[in-house]
Amino acid sequence: MSRTNPLYALILAGGSGTRFWPLSRNVRPKQLLRLFDNETLIEKAVNRLEGLVPPERILVLTNEVQLEAVRAVLPGLPPENIVAEPARRDTAPAIALAAGWIAARDPDATMLALPADQLILKDDTFRRVLADAAWAAAEKEAIVTLGIQPDWACPSYGYIERGPVLAEAPGGEAVHEVTTFREKPSVETARDYLESGRFSWNAGIFVWTLPTLLRELSQHCPPLAGFVAELRDSSDFAATVAEKFPRLDRISIDFALMEKAEQILNIETEVGWDDVGSWVSVAKYFEQDEAGNASRGAVISVDSRNNIIFSPPGSPLPALLGVENLIVVQTDDALLVADRTKADQIKKLVDLLPEEFV
Length: 358
Known about the structure:
This protein is α/β, with parallel strands linked by helices.
């Protein structure tokens, strides 16, 4: 980007991650877990921006409960760039907060909005695609979304339907018009999407210039546009956030803006992306044995098949005998044993737990 149009990044890091209990807790949600190696997901999210966005232009939004833990794992960012939202207000107010923070520094900046808790394996490709998206956002004065090239008919993701190619970005990526956003489909509909070749998974990654974002918010969500302007002009950013943010309606950016904006563009890409939304999806990246058991950490297994085992260093040794299709996760104070086909129902357990285990 040019000197007059610098690139800033917002990393959204306020999730609770109950699907990964007992490893995840309120103070240690999914983005703060070391599921794959010694790096947390939020560290990966920041580190993959290296060379594209300097640390002083990266803003991380989290909540009060997680603030100190997030700052502890991101010592390379200025502490004041890691901000706690005073209330949970979903993605649209969070993005407006970040836009105000950036606008106070450069009202013509280009902004990336990225989740903190996704896995991306091809960092170089991802940076190149983001650079092309930033170019398209500035060149076309439009909102740009990143779509993930689907490799199976997943009913758990939202989808983006692509229209004609509008331009080719400098890095070679095709920039499409967006026809429509689709909510999570049935399995049959997802198959139709996959076969058509026109649909991408919606990764929740957005790129826009601040003038474009303010134009669209002013038209479709004036209270958020007003909030951005107040933050931009505020002499006390923290005080303005504390006073105004909790009063904003709780609404996602999809409902507030993406379903209403006049022009939205899309770049479809394959970057080794995974939403890693459950123990089953994470297990794909664990060590696999010949019986289909997926494990991270030590385990002894006899006559057992298709199990998922997570055993951090220092945990008691798990030993499996004659069992199938289980999830076994240990921490220093809790043990989960679940049917792997019910991984998406772990929240039912969490809702029943004593407060000290949540």
